[in-house]
Each structure stands twice: as structure tokens, then as C-alpha cells.
């Protein structure tokens, strides 16, 4: 009888150990799978960020290449104009470009302020980074703290003086549309000409 009890106790111990061992193996398996999952996720994240950084670097390099191409093209264009056209023709050409630039968008502001130049001046002052001073003699001084031409604002640093006749043409189109008569615009200084700001004098 005692042997039978002893045998049963041993059997119970064996089964208990077996169940405990199986449970521990199951826990270890879950822990292993969890750790493996975390490692896989970490590896995937590292690979993703590595690829993302590589793509970002490629995009930056591509943007720099595009910017350099644009700058070189503008410089070559202006050099050819300086070489092949007289001063008056160059100025007329760049003025026409500036007028066309205004007609493609901003002139709608001037059209909504026809015969009321002061209203246009107030509107431009509210929506853009431009300082416009009333000279109290039918004149206005327009000042920009930086170059706003999307083609060359980032570079090149300097351009032939005739390039900024484009900005003069833009202002001519805007103020003539608002005033409903011819106006005069004088270039005082521009950043691309080496000035500290872009300043223009408008005579109505």
C-alpha cells in the first residue's frame, strides 16, 4: 500500500513537473516570439528611416541641381542679352516681362481698386511684405526688404542692372491699372544690383 502511495506521489510530481516545464516552454516561446517581433519591427523601422533619409538626401541634391541649372540659365540669358541688345531694347524687354508677370495674377488686385490708388496701396501693404510710403505729391516709394522674384530670389546673388527692369514693369502694370492712366516708375536701388533693399519711386 505504501509503495502504491509513493508511486502515485512520484507520478503526481512527474506530471506536475511536466506541466510546469511545458508551461515554462510555452512562456519562453511567447517571450521569444515577442522579442523576435520587436527585433523585426526595429529592423524594419531602421530600414525605413535609412531609405527615407537616402530619399531625402537624393531630393535635396536634386533640388540643388535644379537651382544651379536655373541660376546658370538666367546668368547666360542676361549675358546674351547684354551682348546682343542695346540698353533701351533690354530695358523694354524686361519691362514687358514684368508687365506680363503682373497680368498673370496680381493685377486682379489693381483691377479691384480702379481709380483708387490709395486703396491698392493699402491692400498690397496688408497682404504682402512691401512697405509703401505716400509722398503726398502723387508719389509713392515702394520698398522690399528682400527679392521676391521667384526666378532669382535664391540666386544668383548679382545680376545685370537691366534684370530689375522686370520689377519696374510689374509696378508699372499694377499702378497704371489702378490709376487708369500712365505712371512713371524709377528704380532707386535693388538687391540684385548690390543694394540693401529694392526701392522704387512711383509718380502718378
List keywords for this structure.
Muramoyl-pentapeptide Carboxypeptidase, domain 2; 5 helices; 204 residues; alpha+beta; 2 domains; single chain; 64% helix
Order of helices and strands: HHHHEEHEE
Approximate shape: extended
**What structural class do the secondary elements suggest?**
alpha+beta
Count of individual beta strands: 4
Computed over alpha carbons, the radius of gyration is 37 Å
CATH class category name of the largest domain: Alpha Beta
Strand order of the largest sheet: 1-2-4-3
CATH superfamily of the largest domain: Trafficking protein particle complex subunit 3
Descriptive overview:
The chain is an alpha+beta fold and 204 residues long. It has 5 helices and 4 strands; from the N terminus they run ααααββαββ. It has a 4-stranded antiparallel beta sheet with strand order 1-2-4-3, with helices on one face. α2 packs across α5. Residues 2-7 have low confidence and may be disordered.
Secondary structure: elements and pairs:
Elements: H1 2-84, H2 87-103, H3 107-111, H4 117-127, E1 130-134, E2 139-144, H5 165-179, E3 184-189, E4 198-203
Antiparallel strand pairs: 1-2, 2-4, 3-4
Helix pairs in contact: 2-5
Please outline what is shown here.
The chain is an alpha+beta fold and 204 residues long. It has helices spanning 2-84, 87-103, 107-111, 117-127, 165-179; strands spanning 130-134, 139-144, 184-189, 198-203. It is built from 5 helices and 4 strands.
Amino acid at each position: 500500500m505504501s509503495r502504491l502511495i509513493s508511486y502515485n506521489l512520484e507520478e503526481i510530481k512527474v506530471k506536475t513537473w511536466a506541466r510546469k516545464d511545458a508551461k515554462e516552454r510555452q512562456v519562453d516561446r511567447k517571450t521569444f516570439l515577442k522579442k523576435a517581433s520587436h527585433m523585426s519591427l526595429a529592423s524594419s523601422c531602421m530600414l525605413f528611416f535609412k531609405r527615407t533619409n537616402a530619399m531625402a538626401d537624393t531630393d535635396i541634391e536634386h533640388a540643388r541641381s535644379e537651382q544651379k541649372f536655373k541660376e546658370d540659365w538666367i546668368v547666360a540669358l542676361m549675358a546674351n542679352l547684354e551682348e546682343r541688345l542695346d540698353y533701351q531694347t533690354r530695358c523694354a524687354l524686361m519691362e514687358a516681362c514684368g508687365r506680363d508677370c503682373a497680368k498673370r495674377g496680381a493685377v486682379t488686385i489693381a483691377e479691384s481698386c480702379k481709380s483708387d490708388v490709395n486703396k491698392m496701396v493699402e491692400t498690397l501693404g496688408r497682404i504682402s511684405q512691401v512697405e509703401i510710403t505716400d509722398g503726398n505729391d502723387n508719389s509713392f516709394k515702394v520698398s522690399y526688404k528682400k527679392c521676391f522674384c521667384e526666378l532669382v530670389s535664391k540666386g544668383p546673388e548679382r545680376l545685370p542692372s537691366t534684370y530689375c527692369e522686370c520689377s519696374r514693369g510689374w509696378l508699372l502694370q499694377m499702378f497704371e491699372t489702378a490709376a487708369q492712366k500712365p505712371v512713371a516708375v524709377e528704380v532707386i536701388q535693388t538687391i540684385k544690383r548690390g543694394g540693401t533693399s529694392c526701392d522704387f519711386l512711383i509718380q502718378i
